[in-house]
Every structure is written in C-alpha cells, then in structure tokens.
C-alpha cells in the first residue's frame, strides 16, 4: 500500500469575507505542485458561505462536479433550467460536459452554509450536460460505509462519467468497518468530516485527508464519534474519449 497524508492545517486557505474556503488541492490563488490532484480527483474545497451570499453565474465544461452540503441550505440555479435547494443529507452532481452555467447561493439570511465542492476529471469529453440530486436520508447506515456515487446510473446514489465510487460513513466511538477497492488501479481518498479515526494505523482528525493506492482494501476504526467521506477514483489520468 502507498499513501499520502494531508493534515487539515496544511490546506490552502482563502478568506474573501463572504466566502471562507479551504483547498485540499491547488485551486485559484493556492498553488502547490505537490498537491495538484489525487488521481482524477482534481478539487476538494471545504466552503463556508456567509448568509445571503454566494457564487454568481459562472461557466464550467468537461468536469464532473459534486456538491455535498454539511450544514445550511444552498440554492442552485443553472442554464438547464434547474432551480433547487440542497441541504445536509443531500448529494448533488452536475456533468458540465459541453458547457453549463450555474450559480450557488446561501438561501438563508441568518446562518452560514457549509458544503464540499468536489471536481472529478471525466472519462468522456463533451457529453450532454446533466444534473441530478438525491437525498441520502433513506440509504444511510449506522457504523458502516454506504454508497452515494458510482459510474452506474442504475446503482445506488448519483452517477458520474468516471469509474469512481463515493461512500459516506457515520460511526460511533469504537466502531469499525472495512473498505474493498472496487476497480483495480483505483485509489481512495478519505476525508474526515468530523471526529477522529484510524486507517491502517494512521490516526486522522477532523478535515484531515488520507489517500491510499496500490491496495486491495483497508480498515477504518473510529476513535470518537466520526463522519468520513471515501472517494475512490482512478489514479491514472485516462485518455479521454468522445
């Protein structure tokens, strides 16, 4: 097994007043040539948006964009005609494909909204843009990982144009679970949302990131009450089709 550790305090940071953002990988004004991506996982931004503020309409193309709210209400509008609100317990995906414009705003005027914005390089270029959103409240499990994203439209969770699988887990202190890699050549980036855990001997705290590859599986033990996001992705940037 190979691994890389990114402690929470080593992330890039930008405070724009209305937006307080931490960047696990190089983004905007934060550039670290050693932290450009983890396989096809390109962006992992931990954002806090002030009440009533947000990201105005802006374009994306040829990227799979996943949003996972951690608190508050995030209003989404896009050029496909979608207007919706996502909140903790939801997962949103947008395949930008040939091009899409969207905006994201904190719907509330009295509290921050906190969410993860994740970008994954697709394995197909110039697909038709698409949007999807699910609630995970009916599929979440206790003290075990459960799937919220995959490459298969018929599988559990949202889907993306990439051989990627995301799992969430909410664990009580002392609970444990194992994760087996879905596809040979993939790695897994674990991001600790809350609490303290141990992955194959490596202790991790809140907002730490830990990537593993060249492994078939690994074990996680929760040292306190915790929440963990696992992102399994191809480690090689593929030749793009389409």
Automatic annotation (TrEMBL):
Where the record annotates domain Quercetin 2,3-dioxygenase C-terminal cupin, the positions are 148-233
Where the record annotates domain Pirin N-terminal, the positions are: 11-120
Quote the PANTHER family the UniProt record gives: QUERCETIN 2,3-DIOXYGENASE
As for family, the record states: Belongs to the pirin family.
Q: Under which name does UniProt file this protein?
A: Pirin family protein
The record lists the organism as Flagellimonas yonaguniensis
């Amino acid at each position: 097994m190979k691994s890389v550790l990114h402690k929470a305090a080593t992330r890039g940071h930008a405070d724009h007043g209305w937006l307080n953002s931490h960047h696990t990988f190089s983004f905007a004004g934060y550039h670290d040539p050693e932290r450009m991506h983890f396989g096809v996982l390109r962006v992992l931004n931990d954002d806090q948006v002030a009440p009533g503020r947000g990201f105005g309409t802006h374009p994306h193309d040829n990227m799979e964009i996943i949003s996972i709210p951690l608190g508050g209400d995030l209003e989404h509008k896009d050029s496909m005609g979608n207007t919706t609100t996502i909140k903790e317990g939801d997962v949103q995906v947008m395949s930008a494909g040939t091009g899409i414009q969207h905006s994201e705003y904190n719907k509330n005027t009295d509290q921050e909204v906190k969410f993860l914005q994740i970008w994954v390089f697709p394995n197909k270029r110039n697909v038709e843009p698409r949007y999807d959103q699910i609630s995970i409240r009916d599929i979440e499990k206790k003290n075990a990982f459960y799937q919220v994203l995959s490459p298969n439209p018929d599988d559990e969770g949202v889907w993306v144009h990439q051989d990627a699988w995301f799992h969430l887990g909410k664990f009580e202190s002392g609970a444990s679970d194992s994760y087996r890699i879905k596809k040979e050549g993939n790695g897994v980036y674990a991001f600790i949302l809350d609490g303290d855990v141990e992955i194959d001997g490596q202790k991790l705290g809140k907002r730490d990131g830990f990537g593993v590859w060249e492994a078939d599986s690994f074990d996680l033990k929760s040292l306190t009450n915790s929440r963990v996001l696992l992102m399994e992705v191809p480690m090689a940037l593929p030749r793009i089709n389409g």
